[in-house]
Target: SnoaL-like domain-containing protein
Amino acid sequence: MSIPGITVDFDVDNPDLTGDSETQNEIFIQLFNSGDGELFDLLYRDDAISNFSGSPLTGKERTEFFKEFLAPKPFLVAEITHAYVAGDVALIGVKFSVDGTDADGKPTRIEGNCTDVLRRGEDGRWLMAIDRPVAGTLLPQ
Model:
């Protein structure tokens, strides 16, 4: 299935972030920037937690947040700072910025660092288990 604006190989019936961190990042960015929250949520395990909203969300609450948040098409730029894989678990560090508009149409920017944990399922597909973006940084510059 071809998805407009998506140039990476992505199967909506069998979503997979792959074991390669650069490819993971590109898939994540392109699906985020598509503005389709339901499509973007396919990158997450059913029991995955995301605190992109500022609160830890899972399941239907997470999906609904992504649908609402991504609808106005905010634009994500993300750069991997580190990636570690141990068996079926991957820890990915990302420096990110998201540009968008607020309810009044004024430009907004969120930037910071993110710690992602991906898990490889029994079927071999890598999906997001924990997505923890933090605006600003807790690390010394």
In short: The two ends are 43 Å apart (CA to CA). The beta strands are 44-50, 75-86, 89-101, 107-120, 126-135. Residues 21-33 form the longest helix (13 residues). The longest strand covers residues 107-120.
